[in-house]
From TrEMBL:
Protein name as annotated: Beta-lactamase
Xref: InterPro entries: Alkyl/aryl-sulf_dimr_sf, Alkyl_sulf_dimr, Bact_Alkyl/Aryl-Sulfatase, Bds1/SdsA1_MBL-fold, Metallo-B-lactamas, RibonucZ/Hydroxyglut_hydro
Keyword Hydrolase (UniProt): yes
Gene: cphA
Domain Metallo-beta-lactamase, chain residue ranges per copy: 70-282
Species per Swiss-Prot/TrEMBL record: Mariniblastus fucicola
One Pfam family hit: Alkyl_sulf_dimr
GO BP annotations listed: dodecyl sulfate metabolic process
Length: 465
């Protein structure tokens, strides 16, 4: 058995760069993002191509720096100055991107634009300021996204570490779905400069450094998001309402409800511009009018479809557990490279939509007042014919590779005074690593491995185990 346990352990393989880029069969079982370990690694490895460090010229005088941190930063060169769109997370990464931009223009920075207020887009602004502070544009509701959930910031910080795999070793790391792992975060937020020009809710069309530029309000991942349009160059900067992955309609680090329907509508609005180049908030730009427009239309349709299927299911009386397994991307969208669930997942989105619209209660009176975990665990043990039998079932589940079931049984056993809690904990660690090895959704994978490491190190309390 021990040998089998070792065999199921996650074998971390250093990522090799291969040429595989798109159209990999995802073979999702029952709405989950689990495949063979080799396939999962190959897929995450292929996604890595989306954020290799480079400066990409997407049009005359328009440059995008990809992979200098988690997000993208862009530079538009005008007559007597440059415009910067988004500034990365901290000044050290931003300075490197700026240095790379400086090979293309040494004109002064006339304006900085924040597409939205998330830290990975605003924290490096000071690196782009050489003298006087330039105009810094943000929407009227700028900052609204970060104001929520402050009361639970202690646990959010822990979950953030796990989702992004911040404590994982180089060998355990893959990536973050739409961003590389191991980013330089020591100075995160240190270069932040607040907006000094407010973009009204009706949007704004103006000229900066001789460049015609339009600001369009587009709530999505955050309520304070906008997208930027260059009418002459036909380039659209989407912020985080588009990147190459199924969108993170819910983040497992813990977020308030993201208005999924607005997100779908904002992306549909972007598609109407039929851009020649689409610059996402993360991952590589998409070139070509047809490719960019199709990607935006597909993205909007995908989000809208998940929303609609969930709402229809709710109205048909289905609960979140049922819907999380039943709702699927429309067949024709499943293998689109920009909709593979590297970052967001459909089941997480479905649960978020459910609780966003109805709160925690699933409408079934059985769940109005469920048994407390310890009592339930005792009843399950009785049903299994005793704690010993329940323990054997847990071990058997692990040996058979039924990792989720092994996790659920170990979570019962942890409440039982006569259980071998050490063994239950060990099984949980092995099962988490088993799931992680098969997982191509980066946040899930990072979370499983991080949690297994925490359990193994003894850092987690008995309660959390
Ligand atoms: Zn971002």
């Amino acid at each position: 058995m021990l040998r089998k346990l070792i065999a199921t352990r996650l074998t971390f393989i250093v990522l090799l760069t291969t040429g595989i880029t798109t159209n990999m069969a995802t073979n999702s079982v029952d709405g989950q993002t689990q495949v063979e370990p080799k396939t999962a690694l190959r897929m995450l490895n292929a996604q890595q191509q989306q954020f290799q460090q480079k400066v990409v010229k997407v049009a005359d005088n328009v440059y995008v720096a990809v992979g200098f941190h988690g997000a993208n930063t862009s530079m538009i060169v005008g007559d007597d100055g440059v415009i910067i769109i988004d500034t990365l997370k901290g000044p050290s990464s931003a300075a490197k991107a700026f240095e790379a931009f400086r090979k293309h223009s040494d004109k002064p920075v006339k304006a900085i634009i924040y597409t939205h207020s998330y830290g990975d887009h605003i924290g490096g602004a000071s690196a782009f300021v050489e003298g006087e502070t330039p105009d810094i544009y943000g929407t009227e509701s700028f900052g609204s996204a970060e104001g929520v959930n402050k009361a639970v910031s202690t646990v959010k910080a822990k979950r953030n570490l796990r989702q992004f795999g911040r404590d994982l070793s180089a060998l355990e790391s893959t990536n973050r779905g739409v961003a590389p792992a191991m980013t330089a975060d020591h100075d995160g937020g240190k270069g932040y400069l607040p907006p000094n020009v407010t973009v009204p809710n009706s949007g704004l069309k103006t000229t900066i450094a001789g460049v015609e530029i339009e600001f369009h309000i587009g709530p999505g991942e955050t309520d304070d998001a906008m997208f930027i349009w260059l009418p002459k160059q036909q380039v659209l900067f989407a912020g985080d309402n588009f990147y190459s992955s199924f969108p993170n309609l819910y983040a497992i680090r813990g977020t308030a409800y993201r208005d999924v329907l607005s997100w779908s509508e904002s992306v549909a609005k972007m598609a109407e511009f039929e851009p020649r180049v689409l610059v996402p908030g993360h991952t590589m730009p998409i070139r070509g009018k047809e490719q960019a427009t199709t990607a935006l239309k597909d993205y909007s349709e995908a989000i809208g479809s998940i929303y609609k299927q969930t709402v229809n299911g709710i109205n048909a009386g289905k609960g979140p557990d049922q819907l999380a397994h039943a709702v699927k991307l429309p067949e024709r969208l499943r293998d689109k490279p920009y909709l593979i669930e590297y970052y967001g997942t459909v089941p997480h989105a479905v649960r978020a939509i459910y609780s966003g619209l109805l709160g925690w209660y699933d409408g079934n009176p059985t769940t109005l007042s469920p048994l407390q975990p310890k009592i339930k665990a005792q009843k399950i043990a009785e049903l299994a014919g005793g704690t010993k039998n329940l323990t054997s079932q847990m071990q058997a589940a692990l040996e058979k590779g039924e990792f989720q079931w092994a996790l659920e049984l170990s979570d019962h056993l942890k409440w039982l005074d006569d259980a071998d809690r050490k063994l239950a904990r060990k099984v949980k660690i092995e099962a988490l690593r088993g799931l992680a090895a098969r997982e191509y959704n980066a946040p899930n994978r990072n979370y499983y491995v991080s949690y297994a490491n925490e359990l193994e190190s003894g850092r987690l309390s008995e309660l959390w185990f």
